[in-house]
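--- STAGE predict ---
source: upstream dedup step, 1 unique chain passed
mode: sequence only
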Amino acid sequence: MATHLRPRARKQPGFFNDELDAAADDNDLFIVERLVARRKKKARAEYLVLWQGYSKEECSWLVEDAMTFDADQCYTHPEPPLRALLDNVSTFLAYISASLKCGVNSSFKFIVPFRTDVYMFLFGRKGKEPSHGLGRWYENEDFNTEDFPSNWSKCHDKLGDGCTIDFPIRLHSKLKWSPRTFIKQDDGTVMPKARSFEEV
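--- STAGE serialize ---
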């Protein structure tokens, strides 16, 4: 994602800060690293912003109207860094390979750590809506051969025995939160602290 600027006064550290300061000094800016999640609140789109140079604990929800760029376009058509793309695909393939080696059945479910922007880049405009439930159904051809090796959905031993994925498969990108904890500041105030985990 190309970096975008936000007024510093409007950036509120912490996952649970939903409100923005009314005052903003336009000369004092933060850089948006990427948009982590999207939600609807009171019929308005809000995005969880990961600020460049800050931890995930300091992400904050911003309404789309408060952003100086097209948030929907950046969220649905991201351009993740090549390193993030390679790392996430590698992790996904390791989970698939381990599952195939175990000979899992068709109802087996597992969770893979996976960045939302990489998921949207690879799969966001592909697959079919399920008749019920979350996620999308994907066929083998939905997995681009530039990013996935041609035999990624098969696992065989030296005798040629093994397993193959029975397509379609359902994928669902989600944001999971660590348990809510609190940190006591030096001035006595108590701040909520949580970390998000992106998964597919």
